[in-house]
Automatic annotation (TrEMBL):
Chain positions of ANK repeats: 278-310
JmjC domain location: 107-254
Record-linked PROSITE patterns: ANK_REP_REGION, ANK_REPEAT, JMJC
Record organism: Chitinophaga ginsengisegetis
Lineage: Bacteria, Pseudomonadati, Bacteroidota, Chitinophagia, Chitinophagales
Pfam families: Ank_2, Cupin_8
Protein name: Ankyrin repeat-containing protein
Keywords noted in UniProt: ANK repeat
Key word Ion transport present: no
InterPro entries for the chain: Ankyrin_rpt, Ankyrin_rpt-contain_sf, Cupin_8, JmjC_dom
Length: 347
């Protein structure tokens, strides 16, 4: 596999710099970003054993270290954390690999929450979806996959080798067709069968190694394969921003699904017409990008047709200019319905 380039790496990241990565949908590594934090200074295996104690946990295991459950059988065992955590320190040469994966810290390990600092780039209007703990021995391989949330990934102990692909490479990565596993690739990254998956050779991989104390931001929709090089402890924060979701391909979402996404923000008091950093409403951006289902969901949740883009175009004018008669028709129909409602209210 020929690496196309390395992930951008910085030692300091300002809010303005992060916004540049966010709006350009680019991942970035913050070297030493955990320096001075409690989790980085305290979280050894022995410390976690003492804090978590005999709390029952479920641990995945496989014979070859691959946890791509779209193509591999993954088995599970359970037991007290202070006992099963010893499995993570077994030499990789022993064959069987053990992985504590994606366990909610607030749900399973609330005693650890005081040790964690929420990433500063997650704003008040954002939704913090999940905070997870990950532990495993050298050789644990996540399998190639993507998430439907933005991700801040804290590497607390050990090193992890990461290979990432842009969402634009999705057609080349053979997403699984199995129900519930569409976010997993059928390609085994480190042992790819290029005869079975010939388009994979056209994909453009980006590489980085995250070391103890590093933070990596992975935008929603970016494919990533994570391989533990050492016994590893990690934390990740999945979060959403009031923006156009691009995870599994926004056009695959139903209007009710997108409405549900929007309502989570509206319930927090977010204004559906609030402008983004470039001064445009979400409706204008959805129209410009041609997402008819998201336009429909926004209109159903009260988005105003009075917004304009930076060129002064209305949503209808933008849709017509882009040749999207379906979106223009939807907008005009909604405008007509609004006008009729106002007439009825006058009577």
């Amino acid at each position: 596999m020929k690496i196309a380039g390395n992930i951008d790496t910085v030692s300091v990241l300002s809010d303005a710099d992060f916004n540049t990565f966010y709006y350009n949908r680019k991942p970035v590594v913050i070297k030493g970003g955990l320096e001075g934090t409690t989790c980085f200074s305290k979280w050894s295996v022995n410390y976690l054993k003492e804090k978590i104690g005999s709390t029952t946990v479920r641990v995945a295991y496989t014979e070859k270290g691959s946890y791509n459950y779209a193509i591999r059988e993954v088995k599970w065992i359970g037991g007290p954390f202070d006992e099963v955590s010893d499995l993570f320190t077994l030499p990789a040469s022993k064959g069987t690999s053990y992985y504590l994966a994606q366990l909610s810290i607030p749900g399973f390990f609330p005693m650890l929450m005081d040790d964690l600092e929420i990433p500063a780039f997650i704003r008040d209007g954002d939704i913090l979806d999940k905070v997870n703990l990950w532990m495993g021995g050298a050789g644990c391989d996540s399998g190639l996959h993507y998430d439907n949330s933005h991700n801040f990934f804290y590497q607390v102990c050990g090193r992890k080798d990461m290979v990432l692909f842009s969402p634009e490479d999705t057609p080349l990565l053979y997403p699984s067709q199995l129900p519930g596993k569409w976010h997993m690739s059928e390609v085994e990254l480190h042992d790819a069968d290029v005869e079975q998956f010939p388009l994979f050779l056209q994909a453009q991989p980006y590489h980085c190694i995250v070391e103890p104390g590093d933070i990596i931001y992975i935008p929603t929709g970016w494919w990533h394969n994570v391989l533990s090089l050492d016994m590893s402890v990690s934390v990740n924060f999945w979060w959403h921003r009031f923006d156009i979701p691009i995870g599994k391909g926004i056009d695959m979402f139903s209007v009710p699904e997108l409405s549900s996404f929007l309502q989570r923000f509206l319930q927090k008091g977010v204004d559906i017409d609030q402008p983004d950093a470039e001064g445009e409403s979400l409706l204008m951006r959805a129209v410009d990008k041609g997402h008819v289902n998201f336009v429909d969901a926004l209109l159903r949740n009260g988005a105003s047709l009075a917004s304009v883009n930076r060129k002064g175009e209305s949503p209808v004018e933008c849709a017509q200019k882009n040749g999207r008669r379906d979106i223009a028709g939807l907008l005009l129909k909604h405008a007509e319905q609004e006008a009729n409602i106002k007439k009825l209210e006058k009577h």
